[in-house]
Amino acid sequence: MKFSFLTGVxxxxxxxxxxxxxxxxxxxxxxxxxxxxxxxxxxxxxxVVRLPxxxxxxxxxxxxxxxxxxxxxxxxxxxxxxxxxxxxHVIGVxxxxxxxxxxxxxxxxxxxxxxxGAFVLTGEATDSALRSTLERNGYRAGxxxxxxxxxxxxxDGGRLTQGREEFEQMRGTYSESWHxxxxxxxGELRGTVELNMLTFLGx
Amino acid sequence: MKFALTFLAGLLLGCVIALxxxxxxxxxxxxGTGPGVDDWSLRYAQPSDDLLLLTHSGSLRLPxxxxxxxxxxxxxxxxxxxxxxxxxxxxxxxxLASRISISRGNGNMMLHGLPVRDIWLVTVPGQGSFTVxxxxxxxxxxxDHLLPVWYLGRDWQGPATVHTVTGPxxxxxxxxxxxxxxxAGLTGSAVExxxxxxxxxxxxxMQLVGxxxxxxxxxxxxxxxxxxxx
Lengths: 203, 230
Known about the structure:
The complex is a heterodimer.
Chain A: H1 2-22, E1 35-37, E2 43-51, E3 55-59, E4 76-84, E5 90-99, E6 106-113, E7 117-123, H2 127-136, E8 145-152, E9 158-165, E10 170-183, E11 189-201
Antiparallel strand pairs in A: 1-2, 2-11, 3-4, 4-5, 5-6, 6-7, 7-9, 8-10, 9-10, 10-11
Chain B: H1 2-23, E1 40-46, E2 51-55, E3 80-88, E4 94-103, H2 109-112, E5 115-124, E6 128-137, H3 139-150, E7 160-163, E8 165-167, E9 174-178, E10 187-200, E11 205-217, H4 222-229
Antiparallel strand pairs in B: 1-11, 2-3, 3-4, 4-5, 5-6, 6-8, 6-9, 7-10, 9-10, 10-11
């Protein structure tokens, strides 16, 4: 009797401690990476944001959005998105800070793919170009618009500036491409954002 | 039959002892480092108008902001939290911060508690941007403040201050890396401090003032090293 009780206590301890030690807490589902090896070297990977479905929140100076009051003269906007792979599966989240205004216009993407790591992209902002292209095509703030507008940064318009975990040893460039097919009265965009990132191994 | 019942009673007792051991686990690092006196402090209040976005899988029971923010329900985003806030320093200057938190995939609750990794992107209008990479452990916060109130019906013992950062920098600090503007090329360290002002069982509410304490340093260059050698 005593033996079976003590065996039970020991089994209970073992069960919980083994569970706490070996259970895969915090592991993230990883989907296959869709990369293409380029003829001249490097690995090309595409990330996609579908608007408006993938937008978590936007604040700042985009079409129809209010300017962040603290930004002063430097127009600053922040967007937060779910991020998809080339096949359209959500694989991560992204924060994008963009400053407009002449030579200092810049966009910074902080991207986290839980199963693979994190990286930061820094490059030229396309926000002003997107807004002026929309306006040239008939968009007026406060009214709905539909059409087909594409704005793309230069192929070498941005750099991979920081990488962690899987992206730690990588360097590379990226381009940002906005394909807008509509804007609603509130300024919410409809379309896609594509990030094409060409990476190489090495410092 | 008697032996089986005795075994089950023992098993139950063993589970309870083990769970209590995990709850008060002495192997888990308890608190991170506090801020230095000269640190640049960037603060945010939660809840407040400065909290622009807070969303998660929906299972965390933390109130989202805005209330209709989309859930991060996808299996690939399990354990992910996204937060955006306007941070303010002592002089009243504002900065925009986006924080992406993920549960760490290295498991082993026995030794590590509830490990998370935070990636902050902070932009100071007109000055530039920097990132903060912070490893933290949420178990002491959960054990000492949230679980007793939210799930065990106890009164909250507060106010309280919690330091969550446990790495990956030296002396339990986060790593700061400058990106653009006046922060380009700078590195540094940071710690996060949470001043809990109120924790209530009702709707799992929590009022706090969070602060990112940043210390920036010039990078060490070859010229500096040569000067020291000479």
